[in-house]
Design goal:
The protein has 224 residues and is α/β, with parallel strands linked by helices. The protein is built from nine helices and seven strands, in the order βαβββαββαβαααααα.
């Protein structure tokens, strides 16, 4: 089996000041942090429909300027120009199904309704690219559970959520040497070890689910 070697790092988001601070731009935040770590500077390249940076390690970073729903155009154009395989691409994106502070690494799979991932998958003709899933939380667990996910992702996170997301990005930067070496197992183990704040919330939710299930279960008298 060929060792993974990333040649293209993609952060997903929407361009423009109106979107800069919103949850949907977590991928952009990671890309900016990665560029700073690698000593690379973004510059707009119209032929690739986005901002591109090149690190000394011959790794390119991309922030598509096509808006989220058309992210695949920029990714596919750059990948084909430099002959980069889907397996050599890492895409960082916001993830509704993870709490702020949680991060997961995976290769392949579906897009789970994420329009940026959907378009990348369609444009590449493959789902084999890697994903760095940055937790932003779900509106059902927020102070406004009636809010639609499409509206929720286009709002700025609360201060404590932003702090947790920043910590997540810092953890992702720390494992970059492992990712660059192709040590996906060690990188995954470290990334998937949630901080105490996330573990506490998950434990609380699990206990609540158990209590709800117990209260809904028929008693021995009712079942006899």
């Amino acid at each position: 089996m060929r060792m993974t070697q990333f040649r293209l790092l993609v952060g997903l988001g929407n361009v423009g000041r109106a979107y800069a601070a919103t949850r949907h731009n977590a991928g952009f935040w990671w890309a900016d942090a990665m560029a700073a770590r690698l000593g690379a500077t973004f510059a707009n390249e119209a032929k690739f429909s986005g901002d591109v940076a090149k690190a000394a390690s011959n790794v390119r970073l991309l922030k598509p300027a096509t808006y989220m729903n058309l992210s695949g155009r920029a990714v596919a154009t750059l990948a084909r120009f430099f002959d980069i395989a889907p397996e050599e691409i890492l895409v960082a994106h916001d993830e509704l199904d993870l709490l702020p502070g949680a991060v997961r690494l995976k290769q392949g799979g579906g897009h789970a309704g994420h329009n940026g991932l959907r378009d990348i998958q369609q444009q590449l003709g493959s789902a084999a690219f890697w994903r760095l899933r940055l937790g932003i939380g779900h509106p059902r667990d927020s102070e406004t559970p009636q809010q639609q996910p499409a509206d929720y992702v286009l709002k700025p996170p609360r201060a404590e959520e932003l702090h947790a997301i920043d910590d997540t990005i810092a953890r992702a930067l720390e494992v970059w040497p492992l990712l660059a070496q192709g040590d996906m197992a060690q990188a995954t183990m470290r990334l998937h070890t949630d901080p105490p704040s996330v573990k506490a919330v998950n434990n609380s939710k699990n206990n609540a689910d158990i209590a709800e299930a117990a209260s809904a279960a028929p008693s021995s008298k009712e079942s006899s």
